[in-house]
């Protein structure tokens, strides 16, 4: 690993963990689809009472935020933002997204929304830390 990246090792692990979270969601989604008898390519009925629908939404929601996380994390590392802030906010994102996924699976709507906000704030925080040179 390049010497200048060493202080960001926890953030690199956070990015890798986020990738594994996405893969876990794909596996859960596939198994849920098989169990629901879903025909690939067919639409998914919007029904929060249906676990398959919730698995689809949890996966889609992660897809909606993961690019912003990776881009802003790269921005923070490349601008040499304070590693303590970058690492902490990166792991805040990972933990918030993991909790969001679990809340989506459990149909816990208010905690899910709180976790969504926490993950979004982590991304915004990463940007602010990088842009402000903190």
**What is the rounded distance between the termini?**
24 Å
Helices, by number, come to 4
Structural class: mainly alpha
The CATH topology, please? Four Helix Bundle (Hemerythrin (Met), subunit A)
Largest sheet: none
Number of domains: 1
CATH architecture: Up-down Bundle
Looking at this structure, what is the CATH superfamily? Membrane associated eicosanoid/glutathione metabolism-like domain
Total DSSP E strands: 0
Overall 3D geometry? Answer: elongated
Q: How large, in whole angstroms, is the Cα Rg?
A: 17 Å
CATH class: Mainly Alpha
What percent of the residues sit in helical stretches (DSSP H or I)?
A: over 70%
User: What is the overall pLDDT average?
Assistant: 96
Q: Percent of residues in beta strands?
A: under 5%
H/E series: HHHH
**pLDDT under 50 segments (min length 5)?**
none
Which helices and strands occur, and which strands form pairs?
Elements: H1 9-36, H2 51-78, H3 83-106, H4 109-131
Helix pairs in contact: 1-2, 1-3, 2-3, 2-4, 3-4
Structure description:
The protein is mainly α and 134 residues long. It has a single domain (7-131), classed as Four Helix Bundle (Hemerythrin (Met), subunit A), CATH 1.20.120. Helix content is 77%, strand content 0%. The protein has 4 helices and no strands. It has helices at 9-36, 51-78, 83-106, 109-131. The protein is elongated, with a radius of gyration of 17 Å. The mean pLDDT is 96.
